[in-house]
Design a protein that fits this description.
The chain is α/β, with parallel strands linked by helices. The protein has a single domain, classed as Rossmann fold (3-Layer(aba) Sandwich), CATH 3.40.50. It is 27% helix and 29% strand. It contains 8 helices and 14 strands. Strands 7-12-10-8-13 form a 5-stranded mixed β-barrel, surrounded by 4 helices. A two-stranded antiparallel sheet has the order 5-6. Helix 2 runs parallel beside helix 7. The protein starts with 29 loop residues before the first strand and ends with a helix.
Amino acid sequence: MERIAESELVLNENGSIYHLDLLPENIADTIILVGDQGRVGKISKHFDSIEYTGQKREFLTHTGLLGGKRLTVLSTGIGTDNIDIVINELDALVNIDLKTRTVKPESKKLNLIRLGTSGSLQEDIPVDSFLLSTHGIGFDGVLNYYEKCAEIEDTELTDAFMEQTDWKKEFPRPYIVEGSKTLLELLREGTYQGLTATANGFYGPQGRQLRLKPTVPDLNERLNKFHFNGHRVTNFEMETSALFGLGKALGHECATVCAIIANRFKREYSKNHDRTIDELITFLLNRLV
């Protein structure tokens, strides 16, 4: 086996993976990913016991047991750049021998479920509902840096999306990747489903205008009107495309379920989004255990 150099697989002095500061024994096979550090404790308080807690930078980790099932909750921070770090380092923890710096002969599969918040891009998907992503549409460009992009991307769907939205050539080339069918079936009941658009920013990249005018001010309208083979774009957020893309390329099962806290077309915002998030946490834990 070829040894991975110190400059490529960076470890801390105690042998833990660099950014996450985790050792293989610190994580479960099922990992709930959240953007906000404060949401980690909101989930782990439901655990029967907590065996591990650790934090480095924005990456807070709690691992414990619920109903006999071992679960990890990990905060990723905001954006696909952070997801690139998190997915690669979680995969390294289970599929690379950190002591010999060699890839293990048999790969291990993780269940990676993002629990987040999002804004609806369709009038009929109400505030305070749950949205399960069937696919991630990446506006971020992250997956284009990996060779497996062409193998896992739904190119027919991507081409149709670029054509219908008149995608600007100045933007990164979008990519569309399907989530885990297994997790989709597990989480489907009680949710809306659709394509989740993943932006590489919160303001201009999602069509918002403060002092700077977006180059595509009608971006949301273009997304709202897209239809292809029964697919439509249902919501906007900032992590799913890289999760689905990198996770699928590495052989993991990935899903995203979001609390819809805004409707961009009705100009509505949740009056009690904390309650909706708590209900989503209960929903997800009940399905996983």
